Amino acid sequence: MAYMAVRLDVRSTIHDSRGDVTKKEFGHLIPPKRIKAVTIVDSYLIDASLSKKELTVAGNLLANPQIESFTIGRHIPPAFDWAIEIGYLPGVTDNAGSTAKETIEDGLKRKFKTGQGVYSARVFYIEGKLAQSDAATIADGIHNPLIQHALVMSARTARAGRMKAPAVPKVKLEASSRVLEVDLEIPDEELEALGKLGVKNRDGSRRGPLALDLEFMKTIRAHFRTQKRKPTDIELEALAQTWSEHCKHIIFSNPLDEIADGIFTTYIRGATESIRAKLGKDDFCLSVFKDNAGAIVFDDEYAVTHKVETHNTPSALDPFGGAITGIVGVNRDTLGFGLGAKPVANVYGFCFAPPEDTTRLYRDAARAQEMLSAKRIAEGVIKGINAGGNQSGIPTPLGFMIFDTSYRGKPLVFAGTVGLIPRKRGTQKLYEKRARPGDYIVMVGGKVGLDGIHGATFSSESLASNSPATAVQIGDPITQKKFSDAIAKEVRDMNLYTSITDNGAGGLSSSVSEMARESDGCRVELSKVPLKYPGLEPWQIWISESQERMTLAVPKPKWKKFEELMNRRGVEATVIGEFTDSGKCVVTHRGKKVLDINLGFLHDGFPRRQMRSRSPVRFASKVRVEPPKKLSGVFVKMLKLHNLSSNEFLSRQFDHEVQSGSVVKPIQGAGRVSGDTAVFRPVLSSERGVVLSYGVAPYYTPLDPYRMAASALDTAVRSAIAAGASLSHLVLLDNFCWASSNDPARLWELREAAKACFDYATLYGTPFISGKDSMFNDFKGFAEDGTAVKISALPTLLISALGVMKDARKAVSIDVKVPGDFVYVLGETADELGGSEYYRMLGEESGAAPAVDGEKNLALYRALEKAIQAGLVASAISVARGGLAFALSRTAMAGELGLSVDLAKLSYLADHALTPDIALFSESQGRVVVTLAPKNRSAFEKIFAKVATAQVGTVSKDRTLSVRDGGKPIIKTTVTELLRAYRSRFKDW
């Protein structure tokens, strides 16, 4: 019997604070005085055959009777002037709708029929003096047309009952099992177009980028000539995914100039191999560069893992979806490490254009595909990381946010996860895995849909008009939480599988074929893969990146027990094939072979090419800017800069207390100041702690990429040591985000940066255990006037540090503690203002980027580590972005105490003292500001006898920051004034 989809609206019966927050947000889009009030109604479109009684049950389940009521049919508030409804387009992951469906099914104790579902929307009823154009402006500002629809309705239309009922956003595809043979015996220009734009459908349209250039396409053509056949479309798509820059890191692995083995093998892996060889029996690395994360020893029982991913390109199109899939994706990387690590902490990093940047950009010449605004991108990314981490029950104790106009085309979104895994189960090492011939290939978690098609190839190119909307995904943390807990807390320890990995970039194509290398073959039947909706073609099923999925190798005798446990936990688990030792990846659909590729060619058949770099013209390193006559105003003004302002609004959105292990928190001291490090205890029965820190200095890249990378690495190490980490148990991760990376000048920058990573990692004895690169962070499109534009992100290197300290109770925070404590500056200050926040504020682009004297810094860090372990240090803060001025401000603000400092007592790199502005704002590396009790002075100075160290002042109780140069007053301001400036930039966020 036919039925009609029924609308069920849920509204608040008490004051709804969401309306107040939304009113404020809308006030950023139109003059706020036009908006009197906003009422929010959560709406569900139930596309199922339910009786009135069953709909009533559904309403009682979806509405909280204490604070909400529901209406079967559209609810019309008594007072409003305009209504805006936002819902998802067909095929877009709708977490609220899926949860509502599951809730109703549980309440009715029956499952919906195939094809039936629940779809969510949100309606904003606005009361105020708004014109239709105002309502349209708000609608444009709160929905993303790539994934959502927006319906704007006047009160007159609504009350007259003429409100348009949105269509059920159900995906309707023409059921097809067709597989195309692709002719590669075509002219080079056509072959090149195929690689760039994708396979042609039968109607002549293109499917989306393969991201394969002509040389790659010729290699594929030559291979299939030897097979004496044409490749199928699914084979071509699989090769494109596997050979993508995103997955194979071609630029990092190709020979560059005289570096025959490539940058990665020579400088990154090479550094780690050199360090581990020197460590010998003291090597604490367990797994590096061969799994979904890197792992080190935590104690005799556990290992800790770390991985940081980038999700830049999808975040430019759909910031929320891009960010949430980034964080839940790296959570799955952790779960997919070894035989399954439990995620115990998340970290993040954001590189945005300033939110005030109103530049309008378009992906196409017709200016129909407008990019989201800088502020929309930032807000969406923050919400995505929030949702992914908080809903997964994983603490987020550390992150950063920096700004530059170069990130307007593509933001950089870093998402990382720390994991915990037992080292052994009996004699079996749990940080190792291997699928075996005969094991079932099992997919667990969500179903497969069109979301994420061409995600890997899309992320391997510049963002442009042909970038596919289907590459956008939205994660579902709740579904993932269910199977994550089941695997990490139960199934792993029951020894029910032999290998596991996540379905990330490339979906099944990536996960299955990667695991097949362990057994040396696989066979998959695509018709067994659970689908969100019918009609997907074989190639779509194989490469879809639909989220919340893992692939496992389950021995056949253990399958039933595995399946039963997953069913009890509400997790779908399906056998889709078998691992073999055939040497091939074979895929069938309804029994017909659609893919048959040798694993050697699939993974290693791509062509290697010799790359050449060219040193570009650099800025002058010698420059002098006339300092302002009064530095007090500059001192306070700097605290208002985007990159130096408080991130408290950000940190407080992310739960860092869940799992109960937090020691050094993201906001530190009574003054609530953002920290550079985090310390937490992943095993609550142990006093051991994990230390996390980071270093990022992209503003130095145009001046000197070698010094940029050295500074990023040195900052990460320095910050970790200042918090209590030990150099003898500290490792690094690298995330290179470059632009136009086939440009010889960019390759030279990349080479210099990677060389610095090798030089300083080997000097400090800090091996790299994991990393990720993203090579084409460019936007190619059009400006508002129709002119073509290209925006390349600053080449950016994020270095993350992971350390283990034996006693987390000895961790040190940044806030000064006691009036009368002595203030020391460790390390030397030089005239190094190039790329600094001070010069950037003054509009100066030249100057000398900071150099890193590794030998001196190494001695300093060892001494500081010894002093902290001896309990001599009350507070410690790394001097980095913003220089000594910012470090002094933060430590004073955090402790809500004053400082009295004399710059004349500083240790200088040159023979003569520097002018006060250079002393305050230089970003010379290797420096730390510490405070200590007077009674500890003798012991402290004994430890630092051979290290540049200066007592420059004392902590005072008068809440005044006073800086002088000998007898000359330079700055005098209050902590209250500093805090007011520090918190002003993002106070409305």
Task: Provide a descriptive summary of the structure in words.
Among the domains are: 6-159, no CATH class; 284-432 and 646-811, 2-Layer Sandwich (60s Ribosomal Protein L30, Chain: A), CATH 3.30.1330.10; 812-989, PurM-like C-terminal domain (Phosphoribosyl-aminoimidazole Synthetase, Chain A, domain 2), CATH 3.90.650.10. With 989 residues, it is of the alpha+beta class. The chain has 30 helices and 39 strands. The longest helix is centred in the last third of the chain and has 21 residues, at 744-764. The strands form eight sheets. A seven-stranded mixed beta sheet has the order 17-19-16-20-18-21-22. A seven-stranded mixed beta sheet has the order 34-36-33-37-35-38-39.
Query: β content, as a range?
Result: 15-25%
* CATH top-level class of the domain at 284-432 and 646-811: Alpha Beta
Radius of gyration: 29 Å
> What sort of overall outline do the alpha carbons produce when their principal axes are compared?
globular
- Which architecture name of the domain at 284-432 and 646-811 does CATH use? 2-Layer Sandwich
User: Please, how many helices?
Assistant: 30
Helical coverage, percent range: 25-40%
Low-pLDDT regions: 455-469
Number of strands: 39
By CATH, the topology of the domain at 284-432 and 646-811 is 60s Ribosomal Protein L30, Chain: A
> Mind summarizing the main beta sheet?
7 strands, mixed
CATH superfamily of the domain at 284-432 and 646-811: PurM-like, N-terminal domain
Mean pLDDT: 91
- What is the first-to-last residue Cα distance? 51 Å
Trace the largest sheet across and list its strands.
17-19-16-20-18-21-22
Query: Which structural class do the helices and strands define?
Result: alpha+beta
